[in-house]
């Protein structure tokens, strides 16, 4: 289903006014998608990280913690759930998380927004969250679908692209493309 409906007309060049309206509509859709993904940014990445799982294995010599079964990780108002996770840390006089990798139906939530994907990585040094594989972002009645989403917590810039998408999935556009759906306010009676 197309977000912009253009009526059938005889072939002729569009007027400058019609072209400006189409450009405005396309810009609004693009800005809406960017705002959609940006809602997961602006997070306090200095807050403590709490984690729980059915099974936790500490690999002290490797500076890793392996989490499996109902993994639930929180930091401030950000929550990540997955089937499996690995926490990599440094221990130079104090434990400091470097990176968090999660896999198996990863769900990241913050407020009313939810992002799903096959795999996610949270790089604490760069303050970047990357989700890959069948990424779907929901906020209210809106949705955004792609293969890869990168959220830069420093700048608040989020990008969604279709790279690596092997084929179309239910509700998604053609392979290699980003698609979405925006709710439209109901008309007042």
Description:
- With 189 residues, the protein is mostly beta strands.
- It has a single domain (38-181), classed as Sandwich (lipopolysaccharide transport protein A fold), CATH 2.60.450.10.
- Helices cover 12% and strands 49% of the residues.
- It has one helix at 16-38; strands at residues 49-52, 55-59, 64-75, 78-91, 95-110, 113-123, 128-139, 142-152, 158-161, 179-181.
- Strands 1, 2, 3, 4, 5, 6, 7, 8, 9 and 10 form a 10-stranded antiparallel β-sheet that branches.
- A hairpin with a 2-residue loop joins β7 and β8 (142-152).
- The longest helix is centred in the N-terminal third of the chain and has 23 residues, at 16-38.
- The radius of gyration is 20 Å and the shape is elongated.
- It starts with 15 loop residues before the first helix and ends in an 8-residue tail after the last strand.
- The model is unreliable at 1-37 and 165-173 (pLDDT under 50).
């Amino acid at each position: 289903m197309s977000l912009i409906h253009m009526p059938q007309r005889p072939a002729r060049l569009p007027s400058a006014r019609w072209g400006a309206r189409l450009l405005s509509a396309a810009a609004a859709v693009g800005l809406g998608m960017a705002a959609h993904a940006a809602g997961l940014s602006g997070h306090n990445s200095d807050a403590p990280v709490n984690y729980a799982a059915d099974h936790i294995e500490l690999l002290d010599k490797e500076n890793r913690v392996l989490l499996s079964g109902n993994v639930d990780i929180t930091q401030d108002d950000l929550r990540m759930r997955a089937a499996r996770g690995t926490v990599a840390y440094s221990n130079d006089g104090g434990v400091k998380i470097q990176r968090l990798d999660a896999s198996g139906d990863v769900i990241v939530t913050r407020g009313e927004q939810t992002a799903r994907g096959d795999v996610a990585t949270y790089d604490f040094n760069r303050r970047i969250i990357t989700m890959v594989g069948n990424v779907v972002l929901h906020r209210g009645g809106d949705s955004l679908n792609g293969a890869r989403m990168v959220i830069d917590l420093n700048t608040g810039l989020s990008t969604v692209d279709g790279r690596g998408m092997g084929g179309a999935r239910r509700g998604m556009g053609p392979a290699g493309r980003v698609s979405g759906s925006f709710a439209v306010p109901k008309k007042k009676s």
